[in-house]
Amino acid sequence: MICTAVSLWLLDRLFPLPAPYQEKRFSQVVVAADGQPLRAFADKQGIWRQPTTPAQVSPNYLTALLHYEDKFFYWHPGVNPYALVRAGWQWLRHGRIVSGGSTLTMQVARLLSPHRRTPLGKLQQIARSLQLEWHYSKQEILTLYLNLAPFGGPIEGVEAASHAYFGKSAAQLSQAEAALLAIMPQAPSRFRPDRYPQRARQARDKLVKRLVDGGIWPTTALTDVALEPVIAQHHYRPMLAPLLARRLVSQYPNQPLLQSSLQKPLQQALQQLATDYLSQYPLHTGLAIMVLDNQSQRPIGYLGSGEFGSRQRLGYVDMAQAVRSPGSTLKPFIYGLAIDQGLIHSASLLVDAPRFFSDYRPANFSGKFQGPITAADALTRSLNVPAVELLAHLGPKQFYTRMVNAGAKFRLSDTPGLPIALGAASTNLEQLVALYASLMNEGQLARISYLKDEKITTRPLMSPQAAWMIYEILRNQRRTDQPFDENVTGRRNNLAWKTGTSHGHRDMWAVGVSPKYTIGVWIGRPDGTSMPGHFGARTATPLLLMLANLLADNTPPPEAPPGVIDTTICWPLGKRALQTPPELCQEQHQAWLLGDQEPATLLAAEGENGSLMQSVWLTAEGTPTLQRCDDAVQQVKIALWPLLAEPWVAKSQRRHQQLPMHGCDNQPVARPLFVVTPRQGSRYLLPPTQSSVAITAKVMGGGNIKYWYLDGELLGQSNNQLQRFSVSAPGRYQLLVSDNLGNSDLVEFELK
């Protein structure tokens, strides 16, 4: 007995079992959150093999398999002597194989260690079977069969076969489908349902009858199976989220099954919607879409290309990962961090007027300046100058460092500077979606993970209060280019959204966040070619709103977190109305404050000093004068508007009306700047014989250097009081003049 055991041990060492999955590797499959396949990748030999276990396979299939192939699987030691003797006798009697004598264990042995169909080969198979039973449990052997059994062509394993022929997991097999897959490995080429449906049906029905006759399945199975035709097509090459799947298998090359967080029905809807939407654009246009579930902080929809495989649209390039200029989409985070820094509140007075920041001169997309504006309106209108002004106060390096420390990824061509506010820090759609999702995640920025069970890590980006304020500001915006409509604005879905357009109209962005979802859209040409006439609000926003309506998030918006105070503030000082004397409160605005912070109105980061609240002496007639003058009789407090805002405020509130302009000897002490011509509201006529009208503009007062702007474009600078220019297109124009001392004035005129 001891000698026998030693001999068996030596044989096992001399002829070890092949490693089950060393040469027979699984193909990699990326599946949706519910296990449905999104894309599969064959192994190096082109074989489609997906991992599974008995617990993951339909009981219908296990029952059919064991009663068809090996009734005594759980009782024999790997070999069924009775079955072998019966098969041998039938072979000798009929001269051909009538019934097989192989057990499931023997079939696994042949799959792992192929042999010739000879008596010697059969002995080798028997030895391997005993060896398998020695090393593995019955469940492990059954698992090997489920994963390695042939099912015709390049398909191996019941899971791959189920997806290939029926487009479903083996866990969902009906009795008819289970019976068909149970008989296939005996003759996989003969019983392929996609090639020989009638032959496959006969074999299937024969097995079902045997199971019914044996009392294994109820008699109703015959009727049910008879109603189910054999219709099979190849489904083993699903192509949903193909670019994300390619990315995941590259990241996890040794993981056969990658369960993503994507939702298959949504993915199918995104693909169809993208195809329809792209049909209105030129062939070289591409798009990318990403949808994130805010609660799980995981993507549920992902489209890296609007038309995968298209050469004209560069459909093999994943534009959700492509690093591009984000345009204005980073502005909400400048405002959010400015709120946290105590620089502004939601209704802080900002000034949209021409500015020089050293050598940087931002202009607005519209070409006009709005003057005094609340922080909320400046953000929703995506005005450039206020955003750059805030970034100048925050510090570009500090802003960039804060974003990167929170986990955001950017690419810079130089050191951080003010152009970041307008898109000079390149990033991708994935990062933008993660950033906007933080608005609904109490300001916490999550690291995106596409695997369903991978741990999500977060870092603080801004306070919950600032995040809520930015969400509410963006949620309550209205489109100014068309009538207010809840379907158009996305307000019906409580969608807060922001658009962006990169320099040269190369990238069109729209990113939105609702209580449940964050949605990102990119449209452009993957090769970086400009698309004149296209911008985020016109090109990307309609698709964003379609997606919001598709998702139909009717969840109520979140309540304001503790620490947000809703109150009334006063312009121009920016303080609470309750603490501001009525004579200093020239305009009232409703605002959200962060706790006890009560930030005063920001003065220009460059070019303006002092305080907006000043003490002034008045004469008996109420005229401003100097304290040293004999006619000074009363001292009062006054509230000044920021110098840059003066062209837009009432004349009675301008500095030349509130501050002394002359000394005691009636000599001027200040020279306010104002436009003499054209006059406000002037109309010029364009004669039919002329292509343009020449205009000579004139100013008085101000500093030595004048800067002249027409509809936001710098006409030039001069050291005198005159500027000549011409206009040719009928319409309204805005002429604004500023000087080196910070004074400015503007007029509007019309060409008819």
TrEMBL record:
Catalytic activity: [GlcNAc-(1->4)-Mur2Ac(oyl-L-Ala-gamma-D-Glu-L-Lys-D-Ala-D-Ala)](n)-di-trans,octa-cis-undecaprenyl diphosphate + beta-D-GlcNAc-(1->4)-Mur2Ac(oyl-L-Ala-gamma-D-Glu-L-Lys-D-Ala-D-Ala)-di-trans,octa-cis-undecaprenyl diphosphate = [GlcNAc-(1->4)-Mur2Ac(oyl-L-Ala-gamma-D-Glu-L-Lys-D-Ala-D-Ala)](n+1)-di-trans,octa-cis-undecaprenyl diphosphate + di-trans,octa-cis-undecaprenyl diphosphate + H(+)
UniProtKB keywords: Carboxypeptidase, Glycosyltransferase, Hydrolase, Multifunctional enzyme, Protease, Transferase
Domain Penicillin-binding C-terminal: start-end pairs: 670-749
Pfam families, per the entry: BiPBP_C (PF06832), Transgly (PF00912), Transpeptidase (PF00905)
Listed InterPro entries: Beta-lactam/transpept-like, Glyco_trans_51, Glycosyltr_51/Transpeptidase, Lysozyme-like_dom_sf, PBP_1c, PBP_C, PBP_transglycosylase, PCN-bd_Tpept
Residue ranges occupied by any Penicillin-binding protein transpeptidase domain in the UniProt entry: 316-524
UniProt domain Glycosyl transferase family: residue ranges: 35-211
Documented EC number(s): 2.4.99.28
Pathway it works in: Cell wall biogenesis; peptidoglycan biosynthesis
Record-stated family: In the N-terminal section; belongs to the glycosyltransferase 51 family. In the C-terminal section; belongs to the transpeptidase family.
Protein name: peptidoglycan glycosyltransferase
